[in-house]
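Q: I have two molecules that I believe assemble together. Could you output structure tokens for the complex as a whole instead of separate predictions?
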Amino acid sequence: MSEPLVAVHNLVAHYGDTLILDNVSCQVEPGEIFVIVGGSGCGKTTLLRHMCGLHGATSGSIIYRDQDITQLDEDALARLQRTIGIAFQSSGLFNSMTVGDNVALPIREYGDVDERLIDAIVRMKLSFVGLGDSGHLMPSELSGGMRKRAGLARAIALDPPLVYFDEPSAGLDPIMAAGLDELILDMRDLLGITFVIVTHELDSIRKVADRILMLDRGKALFTGTVKEAENSDVERVKQLFERRPDEFIAQRNV
Amino acid sequence: MSEKPLQAPATLDQKSGRSLWESLTQRSVEQGSTVVIAFDETEKMDSLGGAWLVKIAEHLHKSGSSLKLEGQQGSVAELLEMVAPALQKPVRKQGAEAGFFENLGDTTLAFIAESRDFLELCVDAIYWSVIAPFEGRGFRWEIFIDEMYEMGVRAIKIVCLMNFLLGLIIAMLMAKQAESYGISIFVADIIMIGFARELAAIMTAVVVSARTGAAIAAEIATMKVQEEIDALRGMGLNVNQFLVAPKLMALLVVLPCLVTLGVLSGIAGGSVWGIGVLGFQPSVWFTQTLNSAFLEDLAQGFLKTIIFALGIVLIGCHNGFRVSGGSRGVGLMTTRAVVMDIFMLISCDIVFAAIFYYVLG
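A: Yes, here they are, computed for all two components at once.
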């Protein structure tokens, strides 16, 4: 078995006094699409943000490229983050720049490429996500789905081996969501990008996930393939895949 | 149509892509021809190699010719399929360049449209602040009280400090001039008259427009960007009644109060110099100050505050409602509100000066 690309060991995280992640461990293999699932507020996005190095952990470690992200100083972390693409839930595009400039920003800052090539790279990355002719538009002129795709184009601007994608299909129509799933699969197959995706859309999970990690109230309940999850004995996992509600919606108010 | 086959390298990456591009740009390509690149020997390519292909396609489009790829296999073919949309000719609608008169016309129309919006806002805001409450259509008292606290009470310290310092500066400036004529005591008169008529009102209004005017514009702009304004409309609530009227009434109440404190602080600042440095007895200095205090001077100052208060709130709200785009738009509109506020203050002050000192005086 190959060395994992990212390994999370016993991660504990708090927001203030509130425990968000309780001893979570998981491993992301190179070239796979690893999906973090769970109900709202279970800590999915928090885990993702820790894996990107955007938050410091209370305890535990996150090993990526033989380095523990939780222990790195600012410069070393920034260097490591340049090898990661992050696509945010609300796209995170800079409103003051055109879509093309948004994608060009990381290339101009860190990309070791011929200056003459930047426009062509931007156009190519944007056309990967179906926005080849939208580079001159401002983010505020894009629809929600287009913004999300532009965010993904920016995330892959530096050809990162690893892309974190927070809620790719949230707020999108089913056709657009399915298109985005296809795009993720294509990028994995053709560009060899490893994806770590946070979502709770069952259709998406079934379509793209190689392995899933299910979180519930900050604890890792299950890790395995979608098939294993669907046949799992763990009640909460079964409930998620069968779309069964809690007996009282109030149970969710933890 | 002539075809000129070009052999792609075994590995198409940044380096080999650049040589391919250079070799193509060095040859002359006939207009309307198709350049063929053969990929049958290419086994590997990366995205930077793909970007050079995009560059080649752009170059060919510019010279009126086109690009054709052939012989690609396996993963190279799949990656080329992904790159293919970027190799198409860019479709960008470009309007004709606008001329001087078109620009002038656009600017004039935009100015008229903005003035109409502003006028509508003024009428609506005044109706919901002054008339609607008497017609039993409601007024949001809780927000009015909160706004008075925010705009008034929390601004007291900075308003007093600024006016105090201005009083001190004016006293220092005038004392130097008056001393040579032996009429230093008249500095007390100048401070009193200056602050009552002009300085307290304008200084306080500048501080309030930078504080409150900017806050109003930023708050409303953010609400607009986050669809809160649409949510209010969707609930059938009147935005002017809900947001603008309480702010307008609050500033109409608190600005004269702040200006009163401003006058007192200015006088205090002046007296520090008069008593502390010029060496007048406090009783002499304050008697002189009181002797030069006239109701009509104070009334001039307070009349301005009403116009200033209306201007600051309405300009803030107007710019907030006009926002477009996201965070950048909020920043731009906030800046615009403060600049317009200060311009409005100075322009109104000129009009008042002309009326009070030349038309009436």
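A: One point stands out. Chain A has a mean pLDDT of 87.
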